[in-house]
Design goal:
The complex is a heterodimer of chains A (433) and B (289).
Chain A lengths: L2 H19 L2 E7 L2 H8 L1 H8 L2 E7 L1 H13 L7 E4 L3 H7 L20 H6 L1 E2 L2 E2 L2 E13 H6 L10 H11 L7 E4 L9 H11 L16 H17 L9 H9 L3 E7 L2 H5 L11 E5 L12 E7 L7 H11 L2 H11 L10 H5 L1 H4 L4 H9 L24 H16 L5 H18 L4
Parallel strand pairs in A: 1-2, 1-3, 7-8
Antiparallel strand pairs in A: 3-10, 4-5, 6-8, 6-9, 6-10
Helix pairs in contact in A: 18-19
Chain B lengths: L3 H33 L1 E2 L10 E2 L3 H8 L3 H31 L5 H9 L6 H12 L6 H8 L7 H4 L1 H26 L3 H9 L4 H28 L4 H6 L9 H11 L3 H25 L2 H4 L1
Antiparallel strand pairs in B: 1-2
Classes of the chains: A alpha/beta (433), B mainly alpha (289).
Chain lengths: 433, 289
């Protein structure tokens, strides 16, 4: 065989083997801005690895149901799932996810923020890589605060927030002192009120898995929330979730908003927000009991056990949650739009430190501890949720009772009584009590 | 006339379609029945699935959420039927009149039927009923009134309104077709005999429409019993808007309790059949005429 023929054969062989390795992976993801941006940048992944990607993009609630059904029935529709901190430890414990304990050295797994890695692990093994992470914090209008003659401390109390909200409220000009989630759903109003209740000393369960809605801290939490929202909240707050409040804040109709730290980039973006140049940030409030009312969450990528494309899926996860990806987004869209909250190195980067909300986001994330979220000891992991499979169902029903209070359809006592019964019934049926 | 041979050939050729359709209905039905007698919690692999007899049925029907959800379902179905039939008759009579731009008006009236339930619920929620930015709130304020927080202050009425808006075109279309088949000589004769408009409506038009109204009631009831998207998008089952379908969805998908939810599914089938038999007995007689 001549040298020319040998080279030709070798090249052909190389091409064939590359083609054989190139896979098409199917990824289920949520329709959040950061994920949509990731889809737009997929070409970079395909160029680097030869693998192609098929996206199934769904609204958050629908995504949760689709991936949960797929994994519990071993449907095998997806090679990568976008899941959160609630599902990851439960599914990891069930053996439904492939452990991410052999990621490459370049990936630098130790750079992942400890709070994120902890929340996405089971028994110390990482089961999902954080695409972005968040806590919650106060976003407030600096101009309205000044007009009210008040100054926001870096770590305010709930009492201060209530007073500031009342001072900023201007019903004639359609300005509400504070906008908070009230919408039914465990991931909507349920998440907010649970995080808030932690700072009032409440918890979902005692150490024997008995519901705790008949205790004073829960009554205090709900009475305070309803009182403050009736004084200074927007009309119809019982149906407001993240998106509704974001829109109100961007339109200049809220003095304060306590919600996910990722919202900071939306409210400070002059293209979308009419108040972009007058937004300040502070830690979520407390009541002096040692717990603040901020939560911890990550949207993360995980590989379902049983996929035939594990290697390609791992390559994608490494690409999408790497330092290089962050640089890629920064280069194309600016530092304010990179996926936040996942890596320590991002917060050490001087370019990112110049972003106005970077410092407060990091402080909020660092102050959240899902393993120790309540004042009294509790048997569950999680801040705005309890990481047990039954929680989503129970908390959705409980939050529906709370929303009925916000709408003035029942009293706090009635709602708490029902919540107690719903929770204890479900826990009994599930064999916890 | 069909011969023995051609009848056999017809049966043979129809068999695949019949088997497919039977399977289409039977497989889910049998699976629902099967699961309803089992403890099946997909999220809890530590709990071994097993037979539980009628436990799921007892738990579903004794849960505090069951009767309120049946009641809500019936209120929504009844409310939407009432609105769509009354307005449907009126609209059908209006559209039957010769008028300028009749074609365009008819298309506009039936347009909501082509909008997906999820989209229409979102449009109503965000564009019309939003208490801050919604069209209704601006209207209310223009007249100096406090805006109504529709989805939490009048949740059932709001959902009935959204559903009725979607189903009105269907009722109108069926009723319009029926009105157009009314013999105009009959109406003219009664007019010449001096019958006032209201008498003409109650003694001639309404009896003529009774078959069409029956069809509207039967078809709409079947679809309205399983209404889901409008509730999912607007209230998420809060404020007393949890229908039986929504409760089953919560049990199966949110609580991941397939056994309990399946028992609920069987109850839903029974409820739908009771209502169907009831309707057939009361109003179905019209169809025989």
């Amino acid at each position: 065989m001549s040298l020319r023929n040998a080279l030709f054969a070798a090249s052909a062989l190389a091409l064939v083997s590359t083609a054989a390795q190139a896979e098409t992976i199917t990824i289920a993801t949520v329709n959040n801005g950061d994920m949509i941006r990731m889809q737009g940048l997929t070409d970079d992944f395909t160029t680097k690895t030869g693998h192609t990607v098929e996206w199934v993009t769904l609204e958050e609630n629908v995504l949760r149901q689709r991936v949960t059904t797929d994994i519990t029935t071993k449907g095998g529709q997806f090679d990568i799932l976008t899941i959160g901190m609630y599902e990851t430890p439960i599914w990891g414990a069930n053996g439904w996810l492939i452990p991410l304990d052999d990621l490459s050295e370049d990936y630098d797994v130790d750079d992942i923020l400890p709070a994120m890695a902890g929340g996405l692990s089971h028994d110390g093994t990482l089961y999902a890589a954080p695409f972005y992470g968040e806590s919650s914090m106060i976003m407030y209008r600096t101009d309205l605060m000044e007009k009210a003659g008040m100054e926001m401390p870096e770590a305010p109390t709930w009492q201060f927030i209530r007073e500031a909200a009342a001072a900023m409220t201007d019903r004639d000009n359609d300005i509400n002192g504070i906008c908070l989630r009230g919408k039914a759903g465990w991931g909507e109003g349920g998440a907010f009120i649970t995080a808030m209740s932690n700072s009032f000393g409440a918890r979902w369960f005692d150490m024997d898995w008995n519901a705790q809605f008949d205790t004073k801290p829960w009554a205090d939490t709900l009475n305070f929330y309803v009182g403050m929202m009736n004084e200074s909240g927007p009309a119809g707050y019982a149906t407001n979730g993240f998106n509704e409040n974001l829109s109100l804040f961007q339109q200049g109709k809220c003095g304060m908003w306590i919600d996910a730290t990722v919202a900071a980039s939306f409210v400070t973006n002059p293209d979308d927000s009419t108040v972009a140049d007058s937004v300040g940030f502070a830690l979520a409030p407390d009541t002096g009991l040692g717990k603040r009312s901020n939560w911890l969450w990550a949207w993360a990528l995980a590989i379902p056990a049983g996929t035939a494309k594990e290697a390609a899926a791992k390559q994608f996860i490494e690409w999408a949650t790497s330092k290089d990806y962050i640089e890629l987004v920064a280069e194309k869209e600016g530092w304010a739009n990179v996926p936040p909250g996942a890596r320590t190195s991002l917060y050490e980067n001087p370019n990112y430190q110049a972003v106005p909300f970077a410092k407060m986001t990091l402080e909020s994330i660092l102050s959240a501890d899902p393993n120790n979220s309540t004042v009294e000891p509790s048997p569950y992991v999680g801040i705005q949720f309890a990481a047990i499979p039954e929680f989503a169902g129970i908390a959705t029903e409980v939050s529906q009772e709370f929303s009925a209070v916000y709408a003035g359809q029942q009293t706090v006592e009635e709602a708490l009584e029902k919540a107690q019964a719903i929770t204890n019934d479900a826990m009994e049926a599930a064999g916890y009590r | 006339m069909a011969t023995q041979h051609s009848r056999s050939a017809a049966r043979f050729m129809m068999a695949p379609a019949v088997i497919l359709l039977l399977g289409w209905m039977l497989v889910p039905l049998v699976m629902t029945l099967w699961f309803s007698f089992r403890r099946f919690l997909p999220n809890r692999p530590d709990i071994v699935p097993g037979w539980v007899g009628f436990d799921n049925y007892v738990r579903f029907v004794t849960s505090s959420a069951f009767w309120p959800s049946v009641q809500t379902t019936l209120i929504i179905v009844g409310g939407a039927l009432l609105i769509t039939i009354v307005l449907g008759v009126l609209l059908a009579m209006l559209l039957d009149q010769p008028m300028w731009g009749q074609g365009v008006v008819r298309i506009l009236v039936i347009a909501p039927f082509f909008v997906m339930p999820t989209v229409s619920a979102l449009v109503w929620k965000n564009i019309f009923m939003d208490p801050v930015n919604g069209l209704f709130s601006h209207l209310w304020r223009a007249f100096g009134a406090e805006p109504v927080v529709w989805l939490s202050d009048a949740p059932l009425f709001s959902i009935i309104l959204i559903v009725s808006w979607q189903w009105l075109p269907f009722a109108t279309l069926i009723l319009l077709t029926a009105i157009q088949s009314l013999d105009s000589e009959q109406l003219e004769a009664s007019e010449m005999d001096g019958a006032p408009p209201l008498s003409r409506f109650f003694y001639i038009i309404l009896p003529h429409l009774s078959r069409a109204i029956t069809i509207v009631i039967l078809i709409q009831t079947i679809f309205l019993l399983s209404i889901f998207a409008e509730i999912f998008v607007t209230t998420g089952g809060a404020f007393g808007t949890r229908t039986l379908t929504y409760l089953i969805f919560q049990r199966v998908l949110e609580s991941q309790n397939v056994g309990l939810g399946s028992a609920g599914g069987v109850y839903a089938i029974i409820l739908a059949n009771i209502i169907a038999i009831f309707l057939m007995r009361i109003v179905g007689k019209n169809l025989d005429a």
